[in-house]
Amino acid sequence: MFTFVKDYFKRHRKGIFIISTLTGGIYLASNYAVSKLKDVQEKATAERLAKE
Question: Domains of the chain: which residue ranges?
Answer without folding.
Answer: 18-52
